[in-house]
Write a structure and sequence with these properties.
The structure is a single chain. This protein has 2 domains: about 90 residues, no CATH class; about 140 residues, no CATH class. Helix 3 packs antiparallel against helix 5. About 50% of the residues lie in helices and about 5% in strands. The chain is mostly helical and about 240 residues long. It starts with a helix and ends with a helix. The protein contains 11 helices and 2 strands. It has a two-stranded antiparallel ribbon. The longest helix has 21 residues. Bound molecules: zinc ion (ZN) (2 copies). One zinc ion binds next to helix 9. The site of one zinc ion has 8 residues, from helix 9.
Length: about 240
């Protein structure tokens, strides 16, 4: 995912912030990112690479207790902490209350070579994105909102899983990035296993339902295809 693009769109389209202010937030995030090694953080080069909310909150605490940073922040009229706070709201999925709200971020994303990756790595990497998508779908299974799971310890919300409707491993066949919000669906564990392990006959109805619901959003993300093309593409994997 192009995190900065998504963050700017979140600020302007969902939070109603001016474009120039959103750019200032990004400058703040970039400045803070350059300071990470001074804070003793060596395992990431940039805040955008951090995939866990807990880690972001830890960094926020480190910064709050760092003299140099608090002075820099004071001189910058609190712009750095404002940018970081806004970014944390984005990561938490604040105000992403429905799929319709999240769809305001949908936009075509060009493919970069490193995007062509294994689906499992992708799913593991994007915990923040998964969190945002779960918020948007209200922690309900998209195949049937009545599907019950259990309350997850980590979120205190119903346990759900995220699934790429068009597997990232098929990126070679599509000319815009598949690693976008529109291509992520929220499923209960049973429906998720169904899509991965059921016979074609068994899963066809669910795939039709999910594709038809997402077709417009995929289209907005530059992934333009008809249902028949979607199935042709999946055949490569089935
Ligand atoms: Zn999956
Ligand atoms: Zn389900």
């Amino acid at each position: 995912m192009i995190v900065e693009n998504n963050f700017i769109k979140y600020c302007t389209h969902i939070r109603g912030v001016k474009n120039s202010t959103a750019k200032h937030y990004c400058d703040s995030i970039n400045t803070i990112s350059r300071e990470l090694s001074n804070l003793g953080i060596y395992d990431v080069d940039h805040l955008y690479e951090i995939d866990s909310l807990e880690r972001l909150l830890e960094i926020k605490d480190l910064l709050a207790n760092n003299k140099e940073f608090t002075e820099l922040n004071k001189k910058g009229h609190q712009m750095y902490s404002a940018g970081l706070n806004r970014y944390l709201e984005f990561a938490k999925g604040e105000d992403i209350t429905s799929e319709k709200v999240l769809s305001l971020i949908d936009t075509p994303v060009d493919i970069k070579p490193q995007m062509i990756i294994n689906e499992r790595i992708g799913a593991k990497r994007d915990r923040i994105i998964v969190n945002q998508v779960m918020h948007a779908e209200g922690y309900l299974c998209e195949i049937d909102i009545h599907h019950k799971t259990f309350v997850a310890k980590s979120t205190n919300r119903p346990y759900m899983e995220a699934h790429h409707l068009i597997p990232l491993s098929l990126q070679y066949n599509v000319n815009k990035s598949l690693d976008v919000y529109a291509n992520l669906v929220v499923l209960c564990p049973t429906c998720h296993r169904l899509l991965h392990f059921a016979t074609n006959d068994e899963k066809k109805g669910s795939l039709i339902q999910l594709f038809d619901e997402r077709q417009d959003r995929l289209n907005d993300s530059g992934i333009k295809m008809q249902r028949s093309e979607f199935f042709e593409l999946l055949e490569l994997r089935m």
